[in-house]
Please model this.
Amino acid sequence: MSKKVVVLNTSPRKNFNTAQMLKEAQKGAESVGAEVEYIDLFDVNFKGCRSCYACKTKGHHTKGLCAIKDDLRPILEKILNSNAVIIGTPIYCGDATGAFRNLAERMIFAAIKYMKDEHTGMMQRELSHDIPIGIINTMGATEDQYNRSYLPHMVEMNEFLMKAAFGHCETLNVFDTSHFIDYSKYECDIFDIEHKKQVRETQFPEDLHKAFNFGKRLAERG
Model:
């Protein structure tokens, strides 16, 4: 039986940096025989955690599935029944998109318990098995700008929480991405347009190759 991988695009743009990286990750997963479903989350009507605490109520065992019955619920069911999940987000205003945050809240909170694991001292997990999670972050910042910011802490926290809930998480960061196809149409003289063009032509193809291997590795791990 082939492995099932869910790929989730939390960018509003369906055919640019994040989507292109995710589609290469999809090809990587498919190259090792995985069955992949690709979903644009901006087509899905949902919100984040509502703090209803249904997943923490005594005697109410959700098995890691958020209790809110909205358009995201079938996708959450697919995630819980998958062998691996790959989520992509651009970095907007120094953070992942709102769609990513809302998804993460719904995924993570229902998959952890407010009960201490007697062996690790950490919170218990709802799931008895691991679901490897891969996160692809695309950003206009250079790697140097990224390292000098607080963004590494954001990435580490997302990894920590996903790992606490699903057992494994790893991240692929993509730096210095283009904001537009044609910079001449926009007021944007803070950017070195020739530099952006060069990065797009030379570095981004290498990033796409990394995404392919990222998807392949996640599928093989699942």
The mean pLDDT is 95. The beta strands are 4-9, 35-40, 84-92, 95-96, 112-116, 123-125, 133-138, 169-174. The domain at 4-221 is CATH 3.40.50.360 (Rossmann fold). The two ends are 13 Å apart (CA to CA).
